[in-house]
Please model this.
Amino acid sequence: MLRKVTVWAAALGVLGALAVTPVIAATTHEEPAKVHWSFEGPFGTFDQQQLQRGLKVYREVCSACHSMNLVSFQALGDPGGPFFEAKYKKSSENPYVKAFAKDFQIDDVDTDTGDKIKRPGTPADHFPAPFANEYAAKASNGGAIPPDMSLLAKAREGGPAYIYSIVSAEGYKAPPAGLTLTPGQHYNIYMPGDLSGAWTGDPNKVPIGGVIAMPPPLADNKVTYDDGTKATQDQEAKDVAAFLYWAAEPKQDQRKQIGLAVMIYLLVFTGLLYAVYRKVWKNESH
Ligand code: HEC
Model:
């Protein structure tokens, strides 16, 4: 009897879940575009040139508003990172890392006087934040806070494809007639949101997407790439999204390598074990 009740309860539960799923799953924004990434799949690795280009886009464009508090300069020289070179055993001794860090002015305290000072960055420093605090960030961005980018590529559904889509040429669109935006708001089809409040048209045809307080940050030739790659908006969007994914998941390449080594080890071990088994049982009838 008890079993029957349980079965019925489970069946009802499944039915209930099915009934509410469509409501939850209804998308209000465009699914992120499909992008091919070099770091996809079990054997994918970061494309170092792409990470260097993405770093340049972050530094010259995004870092004016978005912090990246968790990322240190020396991480850029770690294996898999944009400045990694095997001949520098420690990333803090990597000359690219050192030169890159030195270009930043870091807040510090003079230990003799206690005064606040600025000093050139060192490899151990982290990327400095563009705003002193979140009030300053809000005041400069029409009341919205540009999210920290250290983990953004992992925190958002769609990951790097979501970041790419938002800042690609396909993201920002002229708002459809009937959608009222306040000054400083932009319409982006990939931005999650509910536009019904700002929509004066047919209530059954609320546009997908959402409003975003970030003005379109990218355009063709927003940066000049050192490797000669053409800086189209699409290229910049892909490169910065790949870089931000690396920033959020810098050890991914090493993890995959270890995984592969473990698999090979297990395969060899299985083969050995089988050979031993055959040998030991050779003259025994089973
Ligand atoms: C002028 C300041 C400014 C610049 C420059 C800027 N952003 Fe933003 N960004 C913002 C603000 C403000 C928000 C929050 C918008 C909101 O919540 O409406 C934001 C939000 C975002 C979001 C959506 C985040 C989320 O919460 O889902 C992404 C993705 C993003 N920015 C990527 C970038 C990238 C990539 C760059 C560089 C190419 C960049 N931004 C440059 C101000 C800026």
Q: What stands out?
A: The pocket of heme C is lined by residues 57, 61-62, 64-66, 141, 144, 146-147, 156, 163, 166-167, 212-215, 217-218, 240 (CB under 6 Å). The CA atoms of residues 183 and 216 lie 14 Å apart.
